[in-house]
Amino acid sequence: MSPFAELGLEADADERAIKRAYAARLRQTRPEDDPQGFQALHAAYQAALAHCRQRESGAVAAEAARPVVPVPAPEPAPVPIQPEACAPPATAPVPRRLAVPPLPVPRFELGAFVQEAIARAGAGDAAALERWLHGVEALWSLDTKAQAGHALVTAIYRQAPPMPEACLDTLLAFFGLDHARAGHDPLALQQLRRRVDLAWHLAPAQRGRLALALRMSERSARRKLDAALRQLQRPFHWSQALFRGLPPAFVQGTARLVQRLCGGHLDLLPASVDRRQLAFWLAAADARHVSRPRLALAGARMLAALLSSLPLGLLFGWVANGPGTGIDPGPVGVTATCVLFLGLLVFAFAAWAQLVRWQADPMPAGRWTGRIHAGLIPLLVGVGLAIGALADAPFAGWPVLLLTAWLAVARSLRGRAIPPGARGLLWIGFVLASPLARSLAEADVRPAWFTALFAAVALGAWGVDLARRRPWRLVRAR
Where are the bilayer-spanning segments (predicted)? Predict the structure, then answer.
């Protein structure tokens, strides 16, 4: 069967008709469904094109080789010829056959195809991407298609360009790489899907889609989302980060946004997110550890509070002296002192909460840190008793013993299901111990049993917790 009959054409069909017929037959004979039929169809298409181009080249050559018939011109009047002007007549040039070069075959640039495919996938239209892929004639060859698919997937794994998951699935399905036999690592492929999709949604042009996916479409929530993303994607500078982190809500909101974006897998975030910004805000929001960002933000907030108290102190000084009599500097110092005291009080409560968390955590693996973690409670009990003995006033050490007892009980009960009411009663009991100790001191009661009670509670809770963490068995189980 001739190639023209295979395509359903007449023998004198031109190149345009051949391409139309091939495209129509290609919709019925897909390479992935019928490889042999596709190879036969493609061979017929190439043969028909070659025959058509050869026929056109022969027609051009025949037209060029046709002899030119001269048209007789009217005879001119006879002119006398001088003898010295006689010369042999010049021969007319013989027309030669023109060599017509074959039509150039379009070359397939693999690198350009990969970049254009990635750019079209980044546009986010999966249907348009699929139509474009089916229209690339070079991909109608199975060998070229396999080579292009391998190069494209390798570039996507290496670059992780932004594109939605639908476009990535379209590329993989077109090249037959969307199944387990293609050699993909399922976990790596899933991470690639999330990485490219997240990079596409984090682009400024897709901010509306991201806000809709995170349910942050309201105006206030959208402003917070834009501010957090701008902060994460700008270069890190300590001064700018400390100024932006003065509101505690921004710190916590940024950390929650990162958690919602990647679910704790920070390697899924694209390169547009600055890694130093990411580490700063996550460390600043982690209340379980003392870190440099947390300490720096605490200092910046205290400094901001002191600076903001100066106008208030000046106002109080102006009101105290009366209008027209100057400003009294006394209220300025009092206001600054009150703000500093409140800041130190907040810092002390934060340090105490951090100490309680550290004691409730598992014992550190380090040699000296493990010893300090295990022996802190007895050390504080000894300090409290030593203060009472050296001051010749047994009640002088009860605040240390009170805090030590609370720390030991919190260490022992941490992680268990303690009802909120029981925690409240425990706090009330420890708070009421202070006026009780003062009343016993004023009544001139011997306080030895009172301080011993605090020490016994602290050591007892510490011993129970230590036995639970590292049980010593006197009898080996058979």
Answer: 298-320, 332-352, 372-390, 396-413, 425-441, 447-467
Q: How many CB atoms lie within 10 A of CB 303?
A: 13
pTM of the full structure: 0.61
User: How far is the C-alpha of 243 from the C-alpha of 246, rounded, in Å?
Assistant: 6
Residue 433, pLDDT above cutoff 60: no
Site of tokens 């400390």:
242
CA distance 95 to 18: 35
Contacts of 335 (CB under 8 A, 6+ apart): 309, 310, 312, 313, 316
Residue type, 167: C
Q: What's the farthest any 2 CA atoms get from each other in the chain?
A: 164
Alpha helices in 82-218 (DSSP H): 110-122, 126-135, 142-159, 165-174, 186-201, 207-213
- As a whole number of angstroms, the distance between CA 168 and CA 153 comes to 10
Separation CA 358–CA 59 (nearest Å): 93
Give the pLDDT score at 68.
46
Are 281 and 275 a contacting pair, CB within 8 Å?
A: no
Alpha helix segments (H runs only) across 35-138: 35-65, 110-122, 126-135
1 alpha carbon, distance to own chain's centre: 59
Q: What is the pLDDT of residues 439-473, one digit of tens each?
A: 555 555 555 666 777 788 888 888 888 887 764 44
Q: What distance in Å separates the CA atoms of residue 64 and residue 78, rounded to the nearest whole number?
A: 37
Query: What is the 8-class DSSP label of residue 375?
Result: H
User: Cα separation of 429 and 438, whole Å?
Assistant: 15
Residue 147, both tokens: 């080579």
Token pair 């009980």 in the structure block, residue? 409
CA distance 405 to 456: 8
Q: Which two tokens stand for residue 248?
A: 């505690």
